[in-house]
Amino acid sequence: MRENEMVDISIILVNYKNVDLTEKCIVSLLNSKTEASFEIIVVDNDSRDGSAEILRDKFPHVVIKDSGKNGGFAYGNNVGVRMARGKYLLLLNNDTEVNNGMLDALYRYAEKNPDVGILGCRALDRNGMELPIAHRYESLKRIMLQSYVKPVMEKMGLQRRLVKAVEHKKEGEKAFTLAQWITGSAMFIRRDLYYQVNGLDENFFMYMEDEDLCHRMNDRGYSVGVIPYMGYVHYCGGSTIQSYFLTKEYVKSRLIFFMRYEPDKFTKIKKQLYRQIAVVNPDISGAETEKMKRELDEFVRNKLSVAVKNVIGVKQ
């Protein structure tokens, strides 16, 4: 295939110090039976552990790109998108393994339904339990439930069942389940539409970038949703974030999102998000929590307004 020849699907994987899972994902893609033509682009987000070299040696026909820095999930995907030749993009988490037929199922549905902006499919976790994929937007009410109800539900092992019952109990039964946003582990998007909405916003280092992209796609009049095809397994992490940096990014991303879309409720939401710090990361100390709040307050004062107004994405 010529270097500038278009393919049906460009699959973008972002790797950061997780080469073993990335290898498994690539193998599952190469072994999947599909009629649609596709290319795989792996963006290594400055792992500095030899990941890019290992992948180049094992997969000479896969495009491996060094991003130059660890700019986050949105940044890495946008690096890959700029190299893409596909009519469609599949932004796929590297900790996934796809099933036969997934690519064709997404491609055929998208071809017949050009009004759908972002498309997903059903998925299982590592234990074979179905994951919630279709969601409603985050809200003050949902944050309060997460702060007070979620910890109890998690201890009882009921949290995921509750989400599925409330948000997408019919997902497996419908030809298409409409959603306000879908989980970013596998997002199928026409490439020209991705550029129209500026793609994933790099203001979000991690978390909320998928919901924000879906929001902007909805605002343009395109629908978002899930087809019933059981497409992949997602070997995702646990429900808690046991890292100071990631906990801070979790809250910061939500501050950007809510100031962008619900500024009238921002003060109340900010208060609840600060209460969530210990819920998100049970291992964080009281002193670290107070330090984080001060750092987040400084971000709100000095940088939030710019992040809210300016989407840092892709442009043609």
TrEMBL record:
Domain Glycosyltransferase 2-like: 10-125
Keyword tags: Transferase
The keyword Aminoacyl-tRNA synthetase is annotated on this UniProt entry: no
Highest taxon above the source species: Bacteria
Molecular functions (GO terms): transferase activity
Gene3D superfamilies: Spore Coat Polysaccharide Biosynthesis Protein SpsA, Chain A
Key word Transferase present: yes
Organism the protein comes from: Dorea formicigenerans
A family per Pfam: Glycos_transf_2
PANTHER family in UniProt: RHAMNOSYLTRANSFERASE WBBL
InterPro entries for the chain: Glyco_trans_2-like, Nucleotide-diphossugar_trans
Protein name: Glycosyltransferase family 2 protein
SUPFAM superfamilies in UniProt: Nucleotide-diphospho-sugar transferases
